[in-house]
Each structure stands twice: as C-alpha cells, then as structure tokens.
Specification:
- There is one protein chain.
- The chain is α/β, with parallel strands linked by helices and 462 residues long.
- It contains eleven helices and 19 strands.
- The protein folds into two domains: 341 residues, 3-Layer(aba) Sandwich (Rossmann fold), CATH 3.40.50.200; 85 residues, 2-Layer Sandwich (Alpha-Beta Plaits).
- It is elongated.
- Bound molecules: calcium ion (CA) (4 copies).
- One calcium ion (CA) binds next to loops.
C-alpha cells in the first residue's frame, strides 16, 4: 500500500467561528429533596412530566400560619420546606394516592393561595454557552446556519442524561490528529497517565513510552499529542465538559480522553495507526474513536483491530466522506468486516443523509449527526461537518453504556446501540440498522418493545 494514500477525512465545511453568545436559562434538576417515591417514578420514566406526589404552592402574603396549616390539612399535605428566595412558597408533599391535578385545582380556589402548580421535572439541558447549537444532542427545530431543523432529529441525549452522564474514570482513546488537552472545555476530561512521572526521562510505567502523560504522538514520535484541529473537535463531541457555563456539552459529560496522535498535517501512516491502537489496548482502554480512513485494504490494520476486539476493545469508525456506497468501493478501516467496528454515517438536522457521507447496506451500520456540529477547536469553538463528526456521537453513547454496564463486551455494547436505533427513511436499506443512534433508548432498561404500530404491521405481514 502506498503510504501517502492514507489521508484523514477532514471536512470542516464551514469554519465559521460561533460568535453569537446565546444566553441559556440555567435549569437545574429539581430532584433535590424529592421523595424516594418521586425519584423512583422518574427513574422508571425519564420523560416523567412532574412529581407524582408533591406540588409547589405559594400562599398569599397575608396568609397566617394557622391559615396555611388549614390549607395543607385540606389536601392532606405536608410542608417539606419553604424558600427564602420566594416568600410564601412551599414544597408540599401529598399523601399517598392524591391526584396532583385535582389537588392543584382545588387549592387554586382557596382564598389564601396565590398559586399551586405541579413540581415539574426539569431535564439537564446544560448551561453551556453554545448548547443551543448542538442540534445533534437536542433538535428542537432550531435554526442551524440558516437551516431549520426537524424536531427530534437527534440522538435524544437529554433523556439519556437522566440515566447516565458518563464516568470520570472511563478512558476513551481518540486516535486522530491529536487533542488540545489544555482547551478550557476539555482540560477537566483529559486522561493523565498516573503511572508516569512527567519529564524525568524515564519510562516509569514501563509501557515502552517515556514521559507519556496525555498519550503519545506517533506521527512525530514524541510525548506531546497536542493538536488544536480535527481531533480536538472530535474529543469535544465525545465528552466536552458539560454544565460549566462555557462552550459545548459532550454526549458524555464525564470521561477521560486519551490523546493518541498519528495524523499529521497531510495524513498519517498505517503503522502509526496500529501503534496508537496498540497503545490504547495495552493501557486497558475499551473504546476508541477513529474519525479517519482512506488507503487500500491493509491486512495489518485489519488484524490489529480484530485483536483489539479480542482484548475487549470497541472501535468506532467514521464511514468516510466520499459520498459512495462502501459495499462497492470499500473505505477502511470502517468497512472491514469485523464485529467490533461500528461504522458511522452522517445525517443532517433534518434526518437526511449528508451528501458527502458514505453508506452501504453491509458496510455502514448506523447514522449519527454529522453536519454543522458545534464543538471545541483551536482553543475556541467551530462548526465541523463530516462522518468524522458523526462517529464521536456514537463513541459518546458507547461511553454512557459502559458507565451503566461496565462489564459488557464490545459486542453487547454494539448490539445495544444497533437494537435501539431510531429508524429513518434516509438510512433505510443503505445501512445495516436503517437508523440513527438513540442514546435514550440505548440506556433504557429493558429494551423498549417495538411500538404498537410496527407490531401491527408485522402481524399484517405475517
Ligand atoms: Ca511510559
Ligand atoms: Ca517518566
Ligand atoms: Ca508532538
Ligand atoms: Ca462546556
């Protein structure tokens, strides 16, 4: 294979600095001080609208303590607490079996009550500055660079976050052009090699690499995998620090990114890609993101990925940006026929396959958001488009799954992702699953049954 053919799939189509600051309301989960019953109800149904057993009541200013007591007794309610911030507001626990809607209605007619309302469930939709641009996480039909999105054409991240936001100890290898590990929105989620003493010229953990603190740079063969471009964008989508009031939110909020650089300004070599994967597997890493490809079929790379799988490693790969059917014109490594590779196509904010995205009924597995994705880059934040941006959405979901199921094999994680996709017309017949990855359904226990309509269609077909 001609090494120079190996090239990175970078399609940063619109290098527009996200310059508009959108102020998002900080919405904090109201589960604090909720009853165990309410918390259990929420864990059974993350889309729960409001607490089943408590309400919020604001008394009028003139209501005396005795009058308040009478009102509470009227609905068999118990005051859980008041709030200095809102005079007269109380969180009231209802007795078992009380109907929230009816209780609110009758309380609203009480002369001493200013208002009574449900104790609504707020989902963690993060206070990150550019969160509203992250349609792939939550598509509300917002305008993305002039394109109005389709509601819910996303990976359902918000509902998933009620179950997991990741694990700060879970390490994900980003095998790429390097990672800006000092980026303000990444620094907290960067892996540090605890077995290595920095800058002493000694390979303290005896892994073959001297002073490898953040990972390794296999392209330049040094211990500094710094790069502010492609791999940094990828890393931000996987797990930029969330709810820190700046930047973006990762699909996972917590993880540790291991930076493995093998791609230079004009591409990288297969031998270095194998060395990077080898490093990750040797360090016990179970998940890598691989937003790169090109070059001919390499038996060495195939063998390396296959053996990584035998070591419990899941390899998420970008399907490539040639706009081609990779069943006919294979793209590597995504199109290797290996169980532990998930090949990811890119969809846009209207649930359409991106024009540049590869596809293939046998060689591409799932779709994920990959057009106009806002993430970390060049010390700030940029838009990026490509299957390179789609793959990290899937890697992030895999990280959430490993948090919930630390003992799962790569195939169990992969199968859960495949079995819980949201089918869309644009992927039908041109991917192995026909759908877009769905973080919420992937995390939901047990796997939701097919909806009634598809069950009916199945029956009619039989
Ligand atoms: Ca070392
Ligand atoms: Ca050292
Ligand atoms: Ca370097
Ligand atoms: Ca952030």
């Amino acid at each position: 294979m001609n090494k120079s053919q190996m090239s990175i799939n970078i399609v940063i189509s619109t290098l527009l600095l996200i310059g508009v600051i959108t102020l998002l309301t900080l919405i904090v989960s109201s589960s604090y001080a909720a009853s165990p019953q309410a918390i259990a109800a929420l864990s059974n149904n993350p889309l729960l609208a409001y607490a089943p057993d408590s309400i919020l009541v604001k008394f009028k200013a003139f209501a005396s303590p005795a009058q308040k007591r009478n009102v509470r007794a009227f609905v068999n309610g118990e005051k859980m607490r008041g709030y200095r911030l809102v005079e007269g507001l109380e969180h009231i626990q209802l007795s078992r079996g009380k109907n929230v809607a009816r209780t609110i209605e009758s309380l609203s007619q009480q002369p001493f009550v200013e208002y009574a309302e449900p104790n609504y469930v707020r989902h963690a939709n993060t206070n990150d500055t550019f969160y509203n641009y992250q349609w792939g996480l939550n598509n509300t039909g917002q305008d993305i660079l002039g394109v109005i999105g389709t509601n819910n054409a996303d990976i359902a991240a918000e509902a998933a976050w009620t179950m997991s936001t990741g694990n700060p100890d879970f390490v994900i290898a980003v095998i790429d052009s390097g990672v800006e590990y000092t980026h303000e929105d990444l620094a907290a989620n960067i892996w540090l090699n605890s077995g290595e003493i920095p800058d002493n010229g000694v390979d303290d953990d005896d892994n073959g690499y001297i002073d490898d603190i953040y990972g390794w740079d296999f392209f330049s063969n040094d211990n500094d995998p710094m790069d502010k471009f492609h791999g940094t964008h990828v890393a931000g989508t996987i797990c930029a620090e969330a709810n820190n009031g700046i930047g973006v939110s990762g699909v996972a909020w917590q993880c540790k990114i291991m930076a493995l650089r093998f791609i230079g300004p004009d591409g990288g070599f297969t031998d270095d890609a194998i060395a990077a994967l080898n490093y990750a597997v040797d360090m016990g890493v179970k998940l890598s993101n691989n937003s790169w490809g090109g070059g001919g079929y390499s038996q060495s790379l195939y063998d390396a990925i296959e053996n990584a799988g035998m070591n419990g490693h899941l390899f998420v790969a970008a399907a490539g940006n040639d706009g081609e059917n990779t069943d006919a014109i294979p793209h590597y490594p995504s199109a290797y026929n290996l169980d532990n590779i998930i090949s990811v196509a890119a969809i846009d904010n209207q649930d359409q396959l991106a024009g540049f995205s590869n596809y293939g009924a046998n060689s591409v597995d799932v779709g994920a958001p990959g057009v106009n994705i806002a993430s970390t880059m060049l010390s700030v934040y940029y838009w990026g488009s490509g299957t390179s941006m789609a793959a990290p959405h899937v890697t992030g979901i895999a990280a959430l799954l490993y948090d919930s199921h630390p003992d799962w094999t790569p195939l169990q994680v992969r199968d859960r992702i495949y079995n819980t996709v949201r089918p869309i017309d644009a992927l039908n017949g041109i991917t192995t699953t026909n759908g877009v990855v769905n973080a919420y359904h992937a995390l939901l226990e047990p796997i939701p049954p097919p909806d009634a309509l598809s069950a009916l269609i199945l029956l009619l077909l039989l």
